[in-house]
Amino acid sequence: MSTASEIDGRPGYVPAGSSQSESWGEWIDRHSRTYFIAPAVVLILLFAIFPTFYSIVFALSRVKFTPSGLTFRFVWFQNFVKQFTGTEQAHFLGKLTGMSAAGWVFGLAVAAVTLWWLIRSIRKTTWVGMIGRTISAAAAIGIALLLGATLLSLNPWGTMLTTLFYVVVGCIIQFIIGTGLAFLCSQPITGKSFFRVIFFIPLMITPLGVGYAFKMIFDITKGPFQPFWEFIGLRDWAWSADVWAARWFVVLGDSWQWIPFIFICMLAALENVPKDHVEAAQVDGASSIQIFREIIWPQIVPVAVTVILIRMIEAFKIVDLPNIMTGGGPGIATESMSLHSFYLWRANDYGQSAAVAYLLLILTVVVCASFFNYVVYNQFRKARA
Amino acid sequence: MSQASYRFDKAKRSLMERLFEAPGIGRMSPAAKIVAYALLLFWSAFVLFPIYWVIITSFKTAQAVNQGPFFIPFVDFQPTLDAWRTQFTADPYCDLYAVGRQLVLLFHNSIAFLLSPVVSIQPMEPQICKVYLAYTNSFVISFASTIVCMVVGSMAAYALARIQYRPRFGNILVFVLLALAAILATTFAGVHWFYTAAVALALFFLLARTIGKHFRGRLRNGDILFWIISQRILPPVVVVIPVYMMFQAIGLIDTHIALILVYAVANLPIVVWLMHDFFANLPIELEESAQLDGATRFGIFWEIVLPLTRPGLAATTLLTLILSWNEYLFAVFLSTAKAQTMPIMVAAKNAGEKGILWWEMCAIIVVMIIPVILMAILLQRFIAKGVLLGAIKG
Amino acid sequence: MAGFNTKVPVTFDKIQKSFGHVRVLEELNLLVEPGEFLVLLGASGSGKTTALRILSGLETASAGRVLIGERDVTEILPKYRDISMVFQSYALYPHKTVAENIGFPLKVRKVPAAEAESQIREVAAQVQLAELLHRYPRELSGGQRQRVALARAIIRRPSVFLMDEPLSNLDAKLRGHMRAELKHMQQALGITTIYVTHDQIEAMTLAHRVAILERGVLQQLATPAEIYNNPANLFVAQFIGSPPMNVVQGSLEGNRFTTAGASIESPVAGRSDKVILGFRPEDCSIVADGNGAIKGRIYTTELIGDHTLVTVETEQDKLTVKAPKDFAGKQGDATGIALSKDHLYIFDAASGQRLR
């Protein structure tokens, strides 16, 4: 057996792996499987998974301060029920009384279309897929009815729809402008690298700074556009007084910060499109719009949907900007769910705060998972096929 | 610009044709060029103006801010360093040695903390003004958390790219249920957390060998990767209260270590996601060859893999640095005085009775965004080379 | 057995390997003699690389044992197997210089720097890289990179050399040159070498013995000459030789092979409805129409240089014949093919096995 004696004297020979001669280094190496991944898993378990579980305890309790610390009284789902039907309904969902005819028509129309889609998909998918689709459909119908009851019935809406407004409207605007800028920068123009650096910067500036800078710039009486506001007769007007102006104001700040993200990703994708494809189309006499639609767009769609997904995930967390720019006002018009939860925490209502945070988590997961399953995943399948 | 109207003789083209027709393949028509430059310049102005306004405001006096807009220094208004002086030199201990003293203090106090079970060392008292303290803290916390995050994250990413893991689904289920039971028992039955944790752990090892075995399903690397990356979906407000309670329980509220750990975890998904892609795309022969030559797994990782992913490492590090530098929500919860970071400092300027002192706040924002802009320019160079594209493509 | 250049045998004992439901290797039994240069030859997907990777330890066998010398290494980590490997892509570390690349195996084994240094010089001189030690791989030509990979493999003086298509990234001229160097070096070092390739010329020129694999099954293990002259089955017969062996389907009765329009005296006797007659293009000749065993029309002619390849269309098939370079036949001419009885092979059509 012992080949050791035969091979002794050879440069750097390590004797064969018998367990007696195993050194420390070898013992560690043998467990590299574990120690490579364990720190990450432990950190996530400690600071993400465990707190998420622990949050359930808060969300299901009435939390009180006592001299000995916090005391928890288990109240089942009261904190959640309150958000949907109880005293907090107007804050979370909006004012739901007096739903208009238009609201009903819109809500029921969306519900009908969604149900039709759901029934049609019974044949196409497994029962696991069916559960997922049912959840997505329920969320879509719920949101549609909520829109009908608030927006279309001229009622104020709550923090949930505000959050969705930031996510959906923000994403659409940012994607269009970001992709447009990326397309411009991918054209043969001089000074590309200058524009690239400039356009990228806002993404990196702290959201807090962005919030204050915008608050300052759009100040009606002291900001740089003061002569303009005065000229159009908005002397005594305030952003924080008008519901929609305040919301768009927040979206403006959010877009200033996040368009660079879309821009930079889409620019990388655009430059990854093989040049000869575009040049072949140019030789064939296609216009730039045709080239974009027929050649470039299909190749960048997979990147585009992923970028939108990432942007959506981050958009659900929006908290700094409305907090600074409008303080959530007027009333609760610009309060996102994160901010809602934050304010509840500041008011020492830990149970409600955790419940709202949990609802935000559920909403985020449902919306993002739906988007992933029905849009992103399909694009990747197509790209691979 | 149909094919029929195309003429070979350049001189005979009309003005309109010359305006709208591209002079060649891969070039733009003059009209398109004008539109493109107009749009790009407009957007540059939109991007730069807020930054410009913040910078000039920091050189204004209270009067210059309050009496309507002034745009150009030396022309519209006389710039002063008043805001900078009150922020950065007026307080006691606002000298440049303060930062050095603070770093010594941090080092001394962390050693004292580490040795506290063995010997008790008197911690040093800070001698530094608030802004300098916050600035030092921001640097220390974001660099330390980035190092932790990069080390832990890239090792995990490499492991997921190269080692096969097949954890049993049943074991994970058992783990989750036991963790929930332990938490509920601690909170509502009042059992000390130490006992519940010990019992839960013991039960886990017992049940994993018995019940967990009976579940056929196993997870794959892709599932673990997805699990780690999906942590990014978690809104910070969901976890921040429990994290606060945890740190309070072990007396780490308002310490650097709390923020370092939390930031490292918050950015871990991004690091794992990006680095996994870099590692997975390396040619595997290099690692196999090193393996045959007798290198250990860590040796391969350190000597072969990391040097080959240097651009990716640099880009990911910069991104993580910037994200930790700007973080606000966790900092609000977890720091009160000693560990305050710059974002808290900025936000605190809002709370004054006299309204917002814009000029002072702008001075702080400026010092806060200077390093970020430098890092952004660096990072941009990596992104321009397409370093981060692979991960986005899935 | 002592000293530096220990010659070690290698044994594959009933090695099986499947990936999921795909069986890549079916019971491979192979004994490599000490100091032998063995070539594993096969098309892609034949399992040759898998066999090599199982020997290296980068892949684990589903069943069976691998022995290096007397030692069962089936369960042993690659680094303890005392082997070194040259990869198809060379696997040079792009961020290390030539010297660092060559010295890497010593570095991970913590050989003192001075000793490593002298060995690196020695090995580099052996492969004519002494001048290039401070360059980076990207600054080298293909052949030089190949030599760095070789140097890195030999610096440890392993018991066994593994090579996975090491020459396939080189251009044709350089490949011929490196082939000769490789053969010389292996002879000089006397280290057991297992070499994987899909190129039959490499196999024939380099090997002491060639093992031909197809669909995970060892088809034949023999010297190059034996493989060429005495193929064990139809697959081997058609795989080796360029242009490949001609095949004609027919039946065998007694010692006559009968096919459409021809009856040929067979080297073996027997009785079967479905057999295949094989003969190499260089073992037959073009004769005038009416003569020869097989008749047909010239389909095309290709002048190669020292000879002409004539493709003849018969009723069944197209057959290739090697003719002199001054062959003057025209496309469409009726012609005959003469065979030589000593160079005919008969295979069973169903199993592909050679009938002897």
Could you write a compact summary of the structure shown?
With 385 residues, chain A is mainly alpha-helical.
List the helices and strands and how they pair.
The complex is a heterotrimer of chains A (385), B (394) and C (356).
Chain A: H1 4-7, H2 24-30, H3 32-59, E1 61-66, E2 69-74, H4 78-84, H5 89-92, H6 101-120, H7 127-150, H8 159-186, H9 192-200, H10 207-217, H11 226-231, H12 243-272, H13 275-283, H14 288-315, H15 320-325, H16 337-346, H17 350-384
Antiparallel strand pairs in A: 1-2
Helix pairs in contact in A: 3-17, 6-7, 7-17, 8-12, 8-14, 10-12, 12-14, 13-14, 14-17, 16-17
Chain B: H1 15-20, H2 30-57, H3 62-66, H4 82-88, H5 97-115, H6 130-162, H7 169-188, H8 193-210, H9 221-230, H10 236-249, H11 256-280, H12 284-293, H13 297-308, H14 310-326, H15 329-334, H16 342-348, H17 358-384, H18 389-392
Helix pairs in contact in B: 2-17, 4-17, 6-11, 6-14, 7-8, 9-11, 11-14, 12-13, 14-17, 16-17
Chain C: E1 10-19, E2 22-32, E3 37-41, H1 48-56, E4 63-68, E5 71-72, E6 83-86, H2 98-108, H3 113-126, H4 142-154, E7 160-164, H5 172-189, E8 192-197, H6 200-206, E9 209-214, E10 217-222, H7 224-229, H8 234-239, E11 246-259, E12 262-279, E13 284-287, E14 294-303, E15 307-313, E16 318-324, E17 334-339, E18 345-348, E19 354-355
Parallel strand pairs in C: 3-8, 3-9, 6-7, 7-8
Antiparallel strand pairs in C: 1-2, 1-4, 4-5, 9-10, 11-12, 12-18, 13-17, 14-15, 14-17, 15-16, 18-19
Provide structural commentary:
The complex is a heterotrimer of chains A (385), B (394) and C (356). With 385 residues, chain A is mainly α. Chain A has helices at residues 4-7, 24-30, 32-59, 78-84, 89-92, 101-120, 127-150, 159-186, 192-200, 207-217, 226-231, 243-272, 275-283, 288-315, 320-325, 337-346, 350-384, and strands at 61-66, 69-74. In chain A, strand 1 (61-66) and strand 2 (69-74) form a beta hairpin. Chain A is globular, with a radius of gyration of 28 Å. Among the domains of chain B are: 128-166 and 232-353 and 370-392, MetI-like (MetI-like fold); 168-218, no CATH class. Chain C is an alpha+beta fold and 356 residues long. Chain C folds into two domains: 10-239, Rossmann fold (3-Layer(aba) Sandwich), CATH 3.40.50.300; 247-355, Beta Barrel (OB fold (Dihydrolipoamide Acetyltransferase, E2P)), CATH 2.40.50. In chain C, 24% of the residues lie in helices and 37% in strands. Chain C has eight helices and 19 strands. In chain C, helix 2 (98-108) packs across helix 3.
